């Protein structure tokens, strides 16, 4: 996964920005405690967001604890203490990271493929531990990923069909509680997955055209040049529908903590990322390269 | 149920502010926003709760706890099932007549897999076929495919209002009272531009004065 899902910092209150950093660090520590250092390298804002949403039903926010880590060996940084939501986020982020690596191993060519193969090998043990914790989730992801790879091989020109497979993989992270909350979260994360997949495809149009890679946006609109200006309107409309569905699902959740922070990400951060990608200004605004601090 | 909690107000809140809070929530959970949304039933339940809470507070404040419910702020609940999709049998004729009414029924029951299967079996593809297929896609959240199918239906039968409304709804020109994320992002941009213009003007004026 990538870094499209992040708050808009100028609009955050200081305590909310602090809380985001604490959950980010807390997730990193949770991953390290459960799966070792390797998987902390793939820590993402997406999973921080998931940890926030998974924990938003809790009544109270526990006091942050202070911990050192590899990235900040000198200062003890405040971290959210591990709770059920963070542990779940750690488990599913290991599953998603591993499947992402496997996907690159199948797709990429040359040195990237080799790198992915090495990383897969290194991550194998952690993945197996995560799979034994969440077997159903993993089975769902494996199935969706197989479908996605089949669609990519046959060069599926339907954006929605390809996005559907990817979105179901994302929706698999939702806890199986069997109640209305699960339905709401599934709908929310399905559309988050759809949005991320399509936005990522839009972002990669230039690169994929150059290297002749599979890209659903290129195939759907028959693009020959990397510019998005001509297809901007329909693309924005379909992305906006997913954003609206995410918002409407979120409105039906019973949110007891971090509401303003999550709202910032959904209502400001995600539309902003959409706009930047479609304008072609995403990379110049920092892209997804910056880790750790917002 | 604590009606004050539902509306997010306190017993000390003034009548006007309670009304404002109620309106805000009713706008958010209005059935029109959840047309073709798989969570429409949950939004409807929430809307009902909000209406009841508002009625309870207003009745309590009017002093007649016995009831005689005021029709909550004139809001009307969507009478159609899940809003929007016309589940009634249309007067179909032609080869697929029976099939199309079954498909409509399946869509209304939320059985999208079955509706899609039946459509794949249909003999020939007319405007109605594309419209129904578009609705299946719409419900699944496949908005690009839905737009294509609806556009096709409109092209094949330009006079049909049902098709046109569906396409308009999808493109959010109407019946989308809720939330327009991208417009807000673009508005932000406009505000910024205005602010910058304003700064420039101020700078010019100050320099002049």
Structural class of chain B: mainly alpha
Number of strands of chain B: 0
Mean pLDDT of chain B: 77
Query: How does the overall form of chain B come out from the CA principal axes?
Result: elongated
What general outline of chain A do the C-alpha atoms trace? globular
Unreliable segments of chain A (pLDDT under 50, ≥5 consecutive)? 289-293
DSSP strand content of chain A: under 5%
Q: Determine the CATH superfamily of chain A.
A: Farnesyl Diphosphate Synthase
CATH topology of chain A: Farnesyl Diphosphate Synthase
Oligomer: heterodimer
Q: What percent of residues of chain B adopt helix (DSSP H or I)?
A: 55-70%
> Low-confidence parts of chain B, pLDDT < 50 over ≥5 residues?
67-84, 173-178, 203-209
If you average the pLDDT of chain A, what whole number results? 90
Question: What can you see in these coordinates?
Answer:
The complex is a heterodimer of chains A (294) and B (209). In chain A, 65% of the residues lie in helices and 2% in strands. With 294 residues, chain A is an all-alpha fold. Chain A has one domain: Farnesyl Diphosphate Synthase. A two-stranded antiparallel sheet of chain A has the order 1-2. In chain A, α3 runs parallel beside α5 (135-153) and α5 runs antiparallel to α6. The two termini of chain A are 17 Å apart. The model of chain A is unreliable at 289-293 (pLDDT under 50). Chain B is an all-alpha fold. Chain B folds into three domains: 3-74, Orthogonal Bundle (Helix Hairpins), CATH 1.10.287.110; 97-170, Alpha Horseshoe (Serine Threonine Protein Phosphatase 5, Tetratricopeptide repeat); 183-209. Chain B is elongated and about 65 Å long. The chains are: A mainly alpha (294), B mainly alpha (209). Chain A binds chain B through residues 158-161, 164, 167, 180, 183-184, 187, 190-191, 194, 220, 234, 236-245, 247-249, 251-252, 267-268, 270-272, 274-275, and chain B through 28-29, 33-34, 37-39, 42-43, 46, 137, 140-145, 147, 170-172, 176, 178-182, 184-186, 188-189.
């Amino acid at each position: 996964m990538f870094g499209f899902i992040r708050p808009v910092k100028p609009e955050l209150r200081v305590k909310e920005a602090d809380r985001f950093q604490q959950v980010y660090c807390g997730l990193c520590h949770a991953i390290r405690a459960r799966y070792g250092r390797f998987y902390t390298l793939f820590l993402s804002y997406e999973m921080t967001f998931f940890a926030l949403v998974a924990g938003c039903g809790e009544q109270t926010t526990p006091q942050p604890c202070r911990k050192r880590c590899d990235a900040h060996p000198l200062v003890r940084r405040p971290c959210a203490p591990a709770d059920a939501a963070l542990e779940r986020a750690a488990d599913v982020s290991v599953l998603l990271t591993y499947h992402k690596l496997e996907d690159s191993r199948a797709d990429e060519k040359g040195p990237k493929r080799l790198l992915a193969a090495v990383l897969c090998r290194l991550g194998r043990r952690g993945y197996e531990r995560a799979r034994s914790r969440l077997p159903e989730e993993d089975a769902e992801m494996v199935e969706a990923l197989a479908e996605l790879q089949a669609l990519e091989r046959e060069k599926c020109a339907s954006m929605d069909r390809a996005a559907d497979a990817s979105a179901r993989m994302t929706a698999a992270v939702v806890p199986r509680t069997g109640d209305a909350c699960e339905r709401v979260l599934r709908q929310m994360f399905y559309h988050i997955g759809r949005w991320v997949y399509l936005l990522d495809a839009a972002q990669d149009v230039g690169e994929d055209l150059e290297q002749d890679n599979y890209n659903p946006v290129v195939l759907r609109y028959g693009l020959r040049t990397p510019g998005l200006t001509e297809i901007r309107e329909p693309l924005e409309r379909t992305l906006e529908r997913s954003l609206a569905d995410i918002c409407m699902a979120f409105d039906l959740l019973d949110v007891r903590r971090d509401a303003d922070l999550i709202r910032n990400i959904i209502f400001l951060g995600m539309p902003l990322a959409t706009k930047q990608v479609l304008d072609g200004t995403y990379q110049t605004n920092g892209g997804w390269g910056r880790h750790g601090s917002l | 149920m604590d009606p004050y909690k539902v509306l997010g107000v306190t017993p000390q809140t003034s009548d006007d502010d309670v009304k404002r809070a109620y309106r805000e929530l009713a706008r958010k959970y209005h059935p029109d926003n959840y047309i073709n949304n798989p969570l429409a039933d949950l939004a409807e339940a929430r809307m009902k709760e909000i209406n009841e809470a508002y009625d309870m507070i207003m009745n309590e404040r009017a002093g007649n706890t016995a009831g005689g419910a005021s029709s909550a702020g004139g809001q009307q609940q969507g009478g159609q099932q899940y809003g929007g999709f016309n589940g009634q049998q249309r007067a179909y004729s032609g080869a697929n007549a029976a099939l199309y009414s079954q498909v409509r029924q399946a869509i209304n029951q939320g059985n999208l897999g079955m509706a899609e299967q039946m459509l794949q079996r249909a003999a020939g593809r007319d405007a109605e076929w594309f419209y129904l297929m578009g609705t299946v896609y719409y419900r699944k959240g496949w908005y690009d495919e839905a737009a294509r199918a609806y556009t096709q239906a409109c092209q094949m039968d330009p006079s049909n209002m049902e098709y046109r409304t569906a396409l308009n709804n999808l493109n959010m020109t109407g019946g989308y009272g809720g939330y327009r994320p991208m417009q807000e992002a673009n508005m932000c941009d406009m505000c910024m531009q205005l602010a910058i213009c304003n700064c420039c003007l101020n700078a010019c004026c100050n320099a002049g004065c």
